[in-house]
Design goal:
GO terms for molecular function: ATP binding; protein serine/threonine kinase activity; zinc ion binding. It holds the Pfam family Pkinase. The chain contains two helices and four strands. The chain has 87 residues and is an alpha+beta fold. Strand 2 and strand 3 form a beta hairpin. The longest helix has 16 residues.
Length: 87
C-alpha cells in the first residue's frame, strides 16, 4: 500500500485477515473506509481510526503520514504478544 502512497489509517486486529491455515498464511487487509492517499512528505491532520491503535501525533492533531500505519502495526504486535495494550 505504501508504495502506492495509500495509508490505511485504521489498522487493528479486526482488519487483518489470514488467508489460510498454512504455516505461512497470506495476510490480507480489509476495511479501507478511512484509507487516504498521502505522499511520502505529505501530512494529514484529520483524526481517523480506532483510538487504541492510533499514533500519538494523530491524537494530538499534529499531522501524520505513512508512519501512522507502522505505529498501528507495532501496537498490534504488542497486543498479540502480551495480551495488553502498551499504554
Amino acid at each position: 500500500l505504501h508504495f502506492k502512497n495509500i495509508v490505511h489509517c485504521d489498522l487493528k486486529p479486526e482488519n487483518v485477515l489470514l488467508a489460510s491455515a498454512e504455516p505461512f498464511p497470506q495476510v490480507k487487509l480489509c476495511d479501507f473506509g478511512f484509507a487516504r492517499i498521502i505522499g511520502e512528505k505529505s501530512f494529514r491532520r484529520s483524526v481517523v481510526g480506532t483510538p487504541a491503535y492510533l499514533a500519538p501525533e494523530v491524537l494530538r492533531s499534529k499531522g501524520y503520514n505513512r508512519s501512522l500505519d507502522m505505529w498501528s502495526v507495532g501496537v498490534i504486535v504488542y497486543v498479540s504478544l502480551s495480551g495488553t495494550f502498551p499504554f
